[in-house]
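> @MW can you paste both from yesterday?
MW: sure, first one:
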Amino acid sequence: MYGISIKLPLTLSNENTMYDRNKTLLDVVKQDLRMLIKTIPGEKIRDEEYGVGLERFLFEPMPTTSPLRSRIFQQVDKYLPYVSITNVDIMANSDENMLRVYIEYNIPSISISDFLSLEEKL
């Protein structure tokens, strides 16, 4: 099996394909979620509303995490309707200029639960 889609960022493969590939639906969904969270609104051509823009929240007042949480839920509802978020945990550390986001989610169509952990640092 060659895979379902190309894995991002692009890396050369050791197999018979040119680039590494996502081999399961879970890999594809996790990549889709990561890309949605990290893409800055306006960065995607032809859809300026796409993306949460995690890094731009680094410049917001650190105690305020509700706008980021709301943006994650809104964007997933709109662009990844096949994903159901069960929990979003955001930890802001102003001393280190760091933002950690932990998202627990379900993929109801294939009855799988997983999580995504992201970290942005200034």
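MW: second:
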Amino acid sequence: MDILVFSPHPDDAELGCGGSMILAADQKLGVAVADLSEGERSSRGTEAQRMQERNEAIDLLGLSERFSVGLPDTEIGQDPRHRLALIQLIRETRPRIVLAPHWNDRHPDHAAAGKLVQEACFYAGVAKVGKGRPHRPERLYYYMLHYLLKPFIPSFVIDISAVWERKMAAVAAYGSQFQSKGGASETALSQPEFVRFIEVKAAWFGAMVGVAYGEAFYLPGPVSLLGFPGLAGPPLQPGKLPPYSMY
């Protein structure tokens, strides 16, 4: 795999970096998602519904593969064997890049997943830990779901404007989570305001770099580049204004 995305529950990867996965798949890169849990303790929907929704999202995202790690929902990272399961998957798929939720998240499973993936990426390169041939991914990037304490300042933002509708179609595949049925088990995520929040967040990150919609990523260190950013495309034509950006 070129890119392996760890998702605490089915739908988290779509919310956090669905557009970036679509762009990578369109470039013929091998993109896979590993669902750490089945989301079996969600307030809404059954396991069978979640599996059907997950399978629909596979095609919408253009994934090469989607794995079920089988960790218990609401208990991710609470058993040392959880790390070994991730190490095994990393060694089997041998990704160049790994994506994980940021560890500073209000949902305990999201926060635990970010820490667990970081540990697994490191120890996957240590021969005497676990089984199989060692492999350490070249890069680990964190995507943002719910950030705590202060505004999220990304290391880079990917322009997903061209695939925005396709990302939202993948999110909408999880109707049990994000569509109101008017029943007794309504949640904050099933209300129309949550879909608007997704769009506002993408517009906020897009405005940082002067595009309509963006997905934000963080890494604790500098990004390696082959040249100065901003020089990849043609220069602005005379009389044409540059797009608005926050910075």
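> thanks! The helical segments are 12-26, 47-61, 80-93, 108-123, 164-172, 175-178, 192-209.
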